[in-house]
Amino acid sequence: MKKTLVATALAALPWASPAAAQDAVGRFYSMRGDILSPAYEGWWPNADGTFTLFFGYFNSNWEQEFDIPVGPDNYFALVEPGALDDLERDGFDPRQADQGQPTHFYPRRNPFLFTLQVPADFGEKEWVWTVRTKRGTVRAYGTLAPDYRIDPQVISTEVGGNFGDLDNRLRDNIAPELRVEGETRRAVRVDPAVALRAE
């Protein structure tokens, strides 16, 4: 069942026909029958050298909820680099399928619901979450690609921190990350200048 939200103020303007106004500002939403999409939210490094991957989902419906048990329609698969095509052929493995993902899906966006911890040598592998419904198959790809790196500030921005507001401690009190290139001990004379560069 599709519904349209249209700003009626535009339709009252003399130069805007009702059809043009609807095209310009129309918004569609579904009560039921639309897609469910797993979502990969990003990753961050842990102090012990491992990494944490964050997952959630987006149920495009405003009312419909789904129950999809862990199995061929709701499973994880660990994919080696260059082997994504294998998911269609033999991706479901009951030994890997259950990684703590939800089996009941509430309406709308539900971010940062659960995590997977991967080892320091995870490299270019991917944990791929597959969900199948009557509307098709959708996947989320958990990778350590640099542009997916997140921090507590990102989560606070998305879901709220400090009772719904952003917590300034997450934004302002982040320790710097420093790396020394070359020898860690240097000797210089008193009079010349020593250049230090921080990036």
Question: Any overview of this molecule?
Answer:
The chain is of the alpha+beta class. Helix content is 15%, strand content 32%. The chain has five helices and ten strands; from the N terminus they run βααβββββαββββαα. The chain has helices at residues 8-11, 18-25, 86-90, 152-159, 168-172, and strands at residues 2-5, 27-30, 36-45, 51-59, 66-67, 74-79, 104-105, 108-118, 126-133, 136-142. Strands 3-4-8 form a three-stranded antiparallel β-sheet, with helices on one face. A hairpin with a 2-residue loop joins strand 9 (126-133) and strand 10. The chain is elongated and about 75 Å long. The model is unreliable at 1-22 (pLDDT under 50).
Overall structural class, as computed from helix and strand content, comes to: alpha+beta
What value does the Rg take, in angstroms? 24 Å
Oligomeric form: single chain
The biggest sheet, with number of strands, parallel, antiparallel or mixed sense and barrel status, is: 3 strands, antiparallel
Distance between the termini: 53 Å
Number of strands: 10
Q: Please state how the strands of the largest beta sheet are arranged side by side.
A: 3-4-8
Shape: elongated
| Average pLDDT number | 78
* Helix amount: 10-25%
